[in-house]
Amino acid sequence: MYQHYLATLQQAEDFLFKLTPSQYIAAAADGGSSIGKHMRHILDHFFAIANSDGLVNYEQRQRGTALEADPALALAKLAQLKTWLKQLPQQQLTRSVMVRSDIGIGTQQLVNVESTLGRELMFACSHAIHHYAMLKQLYQQQTGQCLRAEFGLAPSTATFLRQQQCVR
Q1: pTM more than 0.85
Q2: In this predicted model, what pLDDT tens digit does every residue of 155-165 receive, in sequence order?
Q3: What residue stretch is flagged as signal peptide (predicted)?
């Protein structure tokens, strides 16, 4: 599992190396979030897990910080997460944690649910890959260039596509 976690973070790192600072901060054509804002959001989730002391609080976000405007800072944060993961003992993955998240639409509704550190890392990776798909679109809109097909592709989708190729 560690390899999956690290590979997910490595995809972000590889992507960031392709960008100029202006591409990182450019807003989406439809006025949506920039690549930097998406990256900050992805990292917020991983750091909510890494910094947890038994409570993974996904509501502690770092909106409007330098991370949204500085790809070098995002790379440094990714390196920090990779170091943390490499040092995380295997038995910690089954450690129980409480997860806090807002599930309200019209009003705030904070809930706490029980989980494990490993399950939350799986969630953070899946969440990151979902955002990578959006980052891929933003990059292609900005540059007209394509990225590797695997970037932003869910593992289950990759498995499905491999199986379809064998059927033909």
Answers
A1: yes
A2: 887 778 778 77
A3: none
